[in-house]
Amino acid sequence: MTYELVSGFETHIELSTKTKIFCGCTTQFGGEPNTHCCPVCIGLPGTLPVLNKEVVRFAIKAGLAVHGRIADVAKMDRKNYCYPDLAKAYQISQLYAPLIIGGYIELSNGRRIRLHHIHIEEDAGKLIHRHGDTYVDYNRGGVPLIEIVSEPDIRSVDEAKEYVEKLQQVMRWVGISDCKMQEGSMRCDVNISVRPKGTEAFGTRTEIKNMNSITNIARAMEYEYERQVDLIESGGKVIQETLRFDDATGTTSSMRSKEDAHDYRYFRDPDLVTIHVPREEVEALRAEMPELPSEKFERYTEDYGIPEKDAALLTKYRSISEYFDSAIEGVKSPKTVSNFIIGQIFRRVETEADKEIFDVAVKPAQLNELVKLLDSGKIRNNLAKSTLEKMLDSGKGALEFISESDMGGVDEAALLELCKAAVEGNPKAVEDYKNGKEKAIKALVGNVMKNSRGKADARAAEEKIAELIRNA
Amino acid sequence: MGSIADIHEKLVTKQVSCTELTKSYLEEIEKANTALNAYVCVTGEEALDTAAAVDKKIAAGEEIGMLEGVPMALKDNMSTKGIETTCCSKILTGYKPIFDAAVWEKLKAQNAVLLGKTNMDEFAMGSSCETSYFGGAMNPFDVNHVAGGSSGGAASAVGGNIAAYGLGSDTGGSIRQPAAFCGVVGLKPTYGAVSRYGLIAYGSSLDQIGPITKSVEDASIVYDAIAGADRRDSTSVGAKNGPTYPQLNNDIAGLKIGIAREYLDGVRDDVKEAVLAAAKVYESLGAQIVYFDLPILKFALPVYYIIACAEASSNLGRYDGIRYGYKTAHYNGTHDMICRTRSEGFGGEVQRRILLGTYVLSAGYYDAYYKKATDLRGTIIKAFNNAFENCDVILAPTVPMTAFEKGHATSDPVETYLTDICTVPVNIAGLPGVSVPCGFNAKGMPIGMQLIGKSFDESTILNAAYRYQLAAPENFKDTKWGVKL
Q1: Which residue, of A231, A250, A283, is where some domain finishes?
Q2: Touching check for B332 and chain A: CB below 8 Å?
Q3: pLDDT tens sequence across A298-356
Q4: Quick one: A176 and A297 in the same domain?
Q5: Residues on chain A touching B101 (C-beta within 8 angstroms)
Q6: In this structure, are A82 and A206 located in the same domain?
Q7: Which residues constitute the domain of residue A462?
Q8: Measured between CB atoms, does B231 come within 8 Å of chain A?
């Protein structure tokens, strides 16, 4: 029997607001332990949380980026559990009335992974184990998070990977988070079950906690899929439990069973008032939203005829697409610009981090100028290519490398003169061509190109030469 | 009467220096506190420093504010920077806050002279002050009786003249009940009128800070000083209708005073008689008494205990011995440390309420208890709103009886919970309520009555209380203790 994988994700993303969700402390990553703290975020008795409005705005942007509905009214709840890194013994989160409802992420195969909701909450601190003792660092406590809860719509490991990548891409795009999995600013809990292909009912699911890289998500899911299928095939039953993934062995192991599951005793946080989201504010944020990667992808492929593969590269990071958009202003063929970026400029930007920033020596306006020279026929493609390399080396504009005499092309009369000279000066090649060696004409064209210092239109020259020989 | 105004007058006219006054309070505390146990911490040095600063101002001919230089006390659940704040719990022993509660910030800025921190039921959970880790505060009318709770220390100190006024907190009656027991005035303001920032939480949606004073005008003066919106407390909105003091002594002819029959059910005869006598006084002042029914009141107690305990179970989760306060001496691992710390650090009543609160929020019980209680809370609020369509204030007993004898309350917790019947509805509905002395029982123990107002209508209840005080001064009796001005 073949089994189908069914998976849903709970993704935590740290918002990059300047200050924490309920106090004025910095959200900066790292820092000496317990230096980014105040009485509020370490929950000293008598302190009260005050909601940072910027967190609400960031979360609304996240919601708009995934086509979610922004609630008119949202509330904060307490999620009670006791752990030393949680200073109040409860996390302020949302259960009963989250800020964002619904939404989806569309995959390249056209499937939509629906989102159940997105809520805002505070992060916990961190435990540090050293010399057999345990220490607590509350710097991260109170850093704002959104949790994006998907429906169990994912059907393969590849879909899962793409889902996470797309989330990462769009959240970075709208500027609400850096989504660095290795620094923990994006973490996933993966729910996974299997069912015989073609059946409707869900199997019993397990949840793999705190995945911190896409590679590990794929490894863990593959392992867990195999494990569950093997278990069912051998007559066993999957039990609902929470698992951890061991990076070293590539296996999952049980953290706690359903019976030991926490009872979080959620209830409305009496210290915080109802969040009213004015429609005008949502509309203002919507108006400020950048064109999303999916929208840009569509424009590039459909309006400009750029191949999907290239369009995907151009929309991977907002900075690249913005570079592209600014470089294509007024040009005849955006595809040419895309070719220059992907064919030449990308070779100069090696790491993903640099691609994300995309601060290259040639500014979009300079590339735009170069392409316009090409468009107007003033220079030829070969010259444009070599000029771009020089521009990339130096950061200087195209005109630094192209002299007046290189430009303007070769007019009809001059071309005729050049062709005549080539025919007259190379009787051997002319003879060969006449005798049926078609390739011989290339030498004559080469002569024209050389004497025009590359400015002549090679195709026009070839036609002209053929005509001269025919009419001779 | 009017002790704050009297003290202010004496300071301004240099009949007494602030330092002399403060010293006499500190001396009387020394004498009386063994019997009253009103203070759990006396801050003599700080008090004298402030007094010296006030004297300097007076000597320099500078004008001083009404509360400037007036010796007072704070309940031990209000954070005081650098001064131990324990909520009278073992679990917070040694805890010195690094910031001031908003109310103390305001009073400190006016050079209030802090004499010390007053005794209370542990984490404000109790009706007799006897759940205090430091033992209960006693009643200045008879030290074999309790001062009441949870702000028993403040009421005892004010009744015993070892503080000119005190701040208490009221979650289910904790200002009004001890005020009634100790024959003083206690105001529980509208929820949101006074900032809770720095008040160590018991039931966050119910807690409110207010004054315990010798007289109604003092309550008005102190309330006006501490009310105000605070951006650190999202639930605070301030005194919406401005200061109350200028509204005192307004004519109350035509004022409609409602009496809900249910408030008189199960109330001891002497208390009922005193409250009805007060109604007669009001009638003689031209007010109109209207009787009505408020049947929803029978749900007030369970609603209160469910909501308060649920919130407390969450609020008190942070006391784990890791960051501050008491920590168990011997343990095996983090989990064991937290369990032992909490088992050893919290007293019986606090543990009982944490368990209750945890239970009512648990999966499978949430809908049956907590959700039902919050739904009923909405119904109770509506019922009060309806009642206020036909009256301006509601008159009720503060407590169905007078002060318990020592040890009585702790013997049967449920019976003691029942005595909160008259005070909790105000907290559930977020309304203002003031307790005013209205007589004495056969043994000479004070009886209190309660005036309940519309949201943010402190002015009307304080004015009504003030008119009563003028009409029935015999009910505002002094005790043998403390500073005699």
Answers
A1: A283
A2: no
A3: 999 999 999 999 999 999 999 999 999 999 999 999 999 999 999 999 999 989 889 98
A4: no
A5: 46
A6: yes
A7: 412-471
A8: yes
pLDDT attached to residue A30: 85
pTM of the shown model: 0.91
Question: Cβ contacts (< 8 Å) between B197 and chain A: which residues?
Answer: 46-48
Q: Scanning every residue of chain A, which has its alpha carbon at the shortest distance from the alpha carbon of B195? A: A48
- Interchain contact, A80 vs B233, CB within 8 Å: no
Distance of CA B161 to the CA centre of its chain: 17
A371 inside 8 A of chain B by CB: no
Contact between B361 and A84 using a beta-carbon 8 Å cutoff: no
**Is A50 an 8 Å CB contact of chain B?**
yes
Of A252, A283, A314, which residue constitutes the final position of a domain?
A283
Whether pLDDT at B2 is above 70: no
| pLDDT, tens digit, 9 for 90 and up, residues A433-462 | 888 888 888 888 888 888 877 777 788 888
Percent of chain B with pLDDT over 90: 95
pLDDT at A464: 87
Q: A125 and A51: one domain?
A: yes
Q: Cβ A267–B314 below 8 Å, yes or no? A: yes
Candidate from A50, A89, A272 with C-beta closest to B317:
A89
Is-cis flag, bond preceding B150, omega within 30?
Answer: yes
pLDDT at residue number A407: 67
Cβ contact (<8 Å) for B362 and A265? yes
Of the listed ranges A98-102, A462-466, B12-16, B372-376, the least confidently predicted one is A462-466
Provide the ipTM: 0.96
Question: How far is A445 from A7, CA to CA, in rounded Å?
Answer: 62
Per-residue CA distances from B242 to A97, A163, B225, B245, B458 (Å) = 35, 56, 11, 9, 10
Average pLDDT score, chain A? 93
Distance CA A120, CA A14 (A): 10
Q: How many CB atoms are closer than 10 A to CB A394?
A: 12
> Residue B234: its chain A contacts at CB < 8 A?
48-51, 271-273
Q: What is the mean pLDDT of residues B66-85?
A: 98
Q: Are A85 and A124 in contact (CB under 8 A)?
A: yes
Specify the pLDDT at position B1: 43
d(CA A389, CA A395): 10
* B174 classed as catalytic: yes
Q: Are residues A222 and A359 in the same domain?
A: no
B75 is catalytic: yes
Which residues in chain B have their CB less than 8 angstroms from residue A134's CB? 334
Hey, what are B47's tokens?
């008090």
The percent of residues in chain A predicted with pLDDT above 70, rounded, is 99
- The highest-level CATH class for domain B3-260+386-475 is alpha beta
Residue B79 contacts A where some CB pair is shorter than 8 Å:
yes
Task: Report the 10 Å Cβ neighbour count for A72.
Answer: 12
Q: Which residues of B touch A75 (CB under 8 A)?
A: none
Question: What is the Cα–Cα distance from A387 to A381, expressed in whole angstroms?
Answer: 10
